[in-house]
Amino acid sequence: MNTWFITGGTPGGFGMAYAEAALENGDRVALTARRPDELASWAKPYGDRVLVLPLDVTDPKLVEAAVRTAEEHFGGIDVLVNNAGRGWFGSIEGMADADVRRMFELNYFAVLTVLRAALPGMRARGSGWIINMSSVAGMRGIEGFGYYSASKYALEATTEVLREEVEPLGIRVMAVEPGAFRTRAYTGFAGETVEETIPEYLPVLEKVRAAMIEQNGNQPGDPRRGARAVIAAMAQEKPPHRLVLGSGGFDAVVATLEATLHDVRASEALSRGADFPTS
Predict the structure, then answer these.
(1) Sheet harboring 171-178: ordered strands across?
(2) How far is it, in rounded angstroms, from Cα 119 to Cα 112?
(3) Between the CA atoms of 40, 44, 48 and 52, what dihedral angle is there, to the nearest 10 degrees?
(4) Of 102, 107, 142, 214, whose CB neighbour count within 10 A is largest?
């Protein structure tokens, strides 16, 4: 029986989908949320196999306290899922600096805080799993979400290096890149205004926002199937380093990587020519 510690436990989202999939497998779950009262009725049928914890992942003291509480309650954490995060609209030139920093605090630095709180217990036991929820936007930049993409690119790089560092310690790491999934992630866009300091970019941003609103509720991805796919990947003899979720996301990532490889190879002579001559 494994114990999961999952951030971002919004009803209908990936956090809850992971929790339900783990509970179906007979595991135990510590599910965190900014508004834990939303999870009370959901958690009740599971009894002492579920621990709901209030948590703002951008507060290091609260993160440390939540991780310690989960470890003391269940005896340790076997699987950490860094799921909390969100995106803001904005151009690269014109997005407000405060919003950029706020996004990185939540999507990137908060992940580091949770990692650093949970890793000591995993190292002590010589085992564990870390699942970092990235995005297809972490593999290809999304117009209008440039800084969201940047925060996920940073998470991808950190996940890759972390995997190499902790593998000798018995800890495994996977990055997960969902495409468009039917969660509440798009719900707030209808009520939000695009905060942009340069008017010339507003038409593009409004177009992206309108597309998100139109797609809301019709996204092809099923969070429950996505969570089960991750668990199936974890159980493989050689688990993947990253797992793209959803057909649209898979096609987009493959196309992006193939285009990138083609672009790199097209300049091979220039790349190799930057070395000192060998003779």
Answers:
(1) 50-54, 28-33, 3-6, 79-82, 128-133, 171-178, 242-245
(2) 10
(3) -10
(4) 107
Topology (CATH) of 3-271: Rossmann fold (3.40.50)
State the burial class of residue 110 (Cβ atoms within 10 Å of its Cβ: 0-12, 13-18, 19+): buried
Confidence check: pLDDT of 189 > 80: no
- State yes or no: is 247 an active-site residue: no
207 is catalytic: no
State the catalytic residue, choosing from 108, 135, 152, 153. Answer: 152
All structural domains of the chain with their residue ranges = 3-271
CB-side exposure of 150: number of CA atoms within 13 Å?
A: 16
Interatomic CA distance for residues 16 and 122, integer angstroms: 23
Q: How far apart are CA 250 and CA 197, in angstroms?
A: 34
Q: Which of 148, 153, 186, 201 is catalytic?
A: 148
pLDDT tens-digit profile of 245-268? Answer: 999 999 999 999 999 999 999 999
Say whether 134 is catalytic.
yes
In the numeric block, which tokens belong to residue 83? 């799921």
> Which one-letter amino acid corresponds to residue 174?
M
Q: Which of 134, 135, 149, 151 is catalytic?
A: 134
Give the pTM. 0.93
